[in-house]
Amino acid sequence: MNTTYHKYHPCIVAITSEDHQGNPHIGTGFHIGDGLIATARHVVEGTRVIKVDGKFNKDVSVKNIFYPESRHVDVAVLETNFDLSYYMNRYHVAGSKWEKIDYLPLAVEWDDFVDDSLILYDAVVMGYPPVPTGFTTLITIRTQVNAVVDQYPFGGESPPPCFILSGIPRGGFSGAPMLMDFKDDSFVMGIVTSALVKNQQPAETGFMAAVTMESLLATLHRHGLYPSSNSLAVKAFASELTPEEEIEFLHGAKD
């Protein structure tokens, strides 16, 4: 069994929505603690969220949606009643060798320091691109980091940098986590947001892009969201760690 997939996949959800014309759409989100679901902004903005479903938590209700300050940042955080208590306390996989977890750990990195140090590292992307003639199914791919790209500015404002991944950017992967694949110590380094294409070509002809972590951490901090499992990451980003918390955070990062 692949440790990365089996350990982290319970935290991945499918987000089904409907636009103003009644057209259905599907995207991906992932649990970062305390019922908070991270996703791509365009998955939920301007749509009616019909349902949020995970393997162990069905029909999740959305209480609120939080967005970044800039409209050019394709990130959103959903406040929900998502809960993996049943999975954590009652569910068991015979022969499992991984520690169960009910959130995805967030990396801490500021956009000013994003460089090419991760080029050709393996990453795992888990999401819900529609499968023709098939029911909604979690699709997992192993990909590589191919580049870090700064995008053209819009209206005088530059979007955050993004990682270019080797995977095919199928619709439905939007909002999926970019997990750096270190088995039990994997962590989210980006959020799949778009396919970079030319002249409105099909998404599959472009590059899979994942926005960097500052966008999500800044959104959490802006709205005062400190999910218990990732609170130290948000505080570290905002330089709000106490000396005791800094020791705890650095010890956890070293482990």
Q: Which runs of at least 5 residues are low in confidence (pLDDT < 50)?
A: none
Helix run count: 6
Number of strands: 12
Using the CA coordinates, give the radius of gyration: 17 Å
Kindly report how far apart the N and C termini lie: 23 Å
Side-by-side strand order of the widest sheet: 4-1-2-3-6-5
Average of per-residue pLDDT values:
90
Silhouette: globular
Please give the largest β-sheet. Answer: 6 strands, antiparallel
Helix share of residues?
10-25%
Q: Provide the β-strand percentage band.
A: 25-35%
Structural class per helix/strand content?
Answer: alpha+beta
Order of helices and strands: HEEEHEEEHEEEEEEHHH
What does this entry show, briefly?
By secondary structure, the protein is of the alpha+beta class. It has helices at residues 3-8, 41-44, 85-90, 214-222, 231-237, 243-254; strands spanning 12-18, 24-33, 36-39, 48-54, 62-66, 76-80, 122-127, 139-149, 162-165, 177-180, 187-196, 207-212.
